[in-house]
What does this fold into?
Amino acid sequence: MTRRIHGKPLGRKIYLRNRRKAYNFNASIRFDKRLWKADITGSIAHVRMLGKCGILTAEEAEEIRTALARLYEDIEKGRLEITDEFEDIHSFVESVLTDRIGDLGKKLHTGRSRNDQVALDMKLYVRDELDSLDGLLFRLLTALEEVIEANTDTYMPGFTHLQKAQPVTLAHHLDAYFEMFRRDRGRIADCRKRMNLSPLGSGALAGTTYPLDREYTAGLLGFDGATANSMDSVSDRDYLLETLSALSVIMMHLSRFCEEIIIWNTDEYRFIAIDDSFSTGSSIMPQKKNPDIAELIRGKTGRVYGDMMSLFTTLKGLPLAYNKDMQEDKEVSFDALDTVKACLELFTGMLSSLHFNKEVMRASAMGGFTNATDLADYLVVKGVPFRDAHGISGRLVLACIEKGCSLSDLSLTEFRKESPVIEDDVYEAISLEACAGRRNTKGACGRAAMAETIAENRKYLNNK
Ligand code: ARG
It folds into this structure.
């Protein structure tokens, strides 16, 4: 048949060029080559099952298995390079296998489709990645706990609306992030648990006529079982959406933390100094030390959100079951995983090497009338109704602003001008130690409450 375009016969050259372009557009090896371990591991489980179920003879299965194991080792040791002339990693593996052991290699794909194969490969890959994310989060939590425990007596202003509000300790402030990253770990664990069912043996979409033992391969590959519906198995990418959502939340937490680090590192704040190894100089202004790493982590948050939105959008209109659109799950997932892992690693290093200017933090807490609430509370204890106490404390703050001093710099006479109930014990009552130390409801910044929090954190970290 003559090939035609707009009714005109299509030249062979044009036809071939179109085919090549379409082939390249279709090919995924450029990015799915990183699935090689998962692909071979999945194939080894599949062929063992084929042997066990008598679909291949025991000898055939063993020969294929050995050849696959050798292939794995060859790639790992750099003796075999995965080249881009294949369409995808699956055809690469099968083709090398067939080159090496002849027609027997072609039997590997019995009872399998690339649809359940790619679903399996991606799950195996992502499951490993979730495990390394868990490790990275754990390391971050451990590093954070160290800084927390070293700073239970470091006072600083706590902020609302980025305005100094009440004094807290640095330990308490940082512990807020401990909670966030701890929840992030929980999200990763939830996702891993839900996704851990094997799609292998679902075929293209409808299952297969071969008597496959899906539970057997699931067991070999460390899954909790086999998936329940073959159409769902080949088209389910929910777990990637969950992963990308959890990754986005991690990035959001890192980004907020980075934002604070950037602010605290400014000349205006000087609460901290980022270690030289994590900051860069300016090419023209010699005085500058830029918090590039913190900024980049903050910036990459947008990229990870984008990866997540991208996949949500790709999947939203897809009819069952497999559609090639799903190939688009790879680059965004890989990008998000790579990005978050790199950010977690760098962030942990940066955090552990931060220098805290404790005196500056303390002075800032003293200077911002963060103890005005405590002064009002003091008056309440002395019998003044809270509304009046609030007014007295406010007027004393105004007096300080006029004088350019902080509350504890006022003399007793100046205090008493506003309220005669004020006595010498006011200085103790509005000291930073007292203000921060006395708040001891569960989860508060006080000494006793923080001691409990720290004990709780340690228990959590010891349970791994
Ligand atoms: N590269 C494909 C993907 O990532 C593999 C599955 C191909 N299946 C198919 N029926 N073309 O989704």
The longest helix spans residues 114-150. Residues 28, 32, 88, 114-115, 118, 322, 324, 326-327, 330 surround arginine (CB under 6 Å). The chain is about 60% helix and 5% strand.
